[in-house]
TrEMBL record:
Coiled-coil blocks: none
Family, similarity comment: Belongs to the TrpF family.
Keyword Zinc applies: no
GO terms under biological process: L-tryptophan biosynthetic process
Gene3D superfamilies: Aldolase class I
PANTHER family: N-(5'-PHOSPHORIBOSYL)ANTHRANILATE ISOMERASE
Domain N-(5'phosphoribosyl) anthranilate isomerase (PRAI): start-end pairs: 4-196
Gene that specifies this protein: trpF
Keywords: Amino-acid biosynthesis, Aromatic amino acid biosynthesis, Isomerase, Tryptophan biosynthesis
Official protein name in the record: N-(5'-phosphoribosyl)anthranilate isomerase
Annotated pathway: Amino-acid biosynthesis; L-tryptophan biosynthesis; L-tryptophan from chorismate: step 3/5
Enzyme Commission number(s) from the entry: 5.3.1.24
Amino acid sequence: MVQVKICGLMNREAILTAVDAGTDLIGFVFARSKRRITKEEAADLAKYIPPNVKKVGVFVNEEMEVIQEIAREAGLDYVQLHGDESPDFCREIGLPVIKAFHVASPEDLDKVARYDCDYYLLDSPAGKYRGGNGEKFDWTIVKERDFLNKKILLAGGLHADNVAAAIDEVNPAGVDVSSGVETDGVKDLDKIREFILAAKKGETNGII
């Protein structure tokens, strides 16, 4: 079953909408971003997330102790690392890890083999911030790659109108969206619902 992650949520209404629509993971951004929240805000918002929906904290080149402290206080289930974190760092952090990789060429996918993580998020090349740029990369780069049963999350430029096609072409374990469910830089409740519905429909075609 394809997993859906809605990232960069900052308020109760967006979280409740995503949960009600059937999201599997909710992402809180703790890195420099317009979507950044504090660990206190995340801990408060976590009260509205049921146990079956997993909480993910997004970090970029953060110190291990800081990540671990925020994970404890916010009750994170996963940490998503969007920086230059090494395979050793990912192993030693002591938490389930989603490691992000920016994909501009087939060679960028060679890095995945060096990491032993729970999920591997493939995103478009970094812009001003690492992730959440709303740009799609060339999915055909991923299509022919054998990741040896590693769980791939697809991100970058996804929205309700193209997520089913993305699932069809790439066959990922899950999809991740942030700017694709926003209007004027703010989470749009209707777009959240539409994206989750479209992604979940994509798995009914014998794809996942």
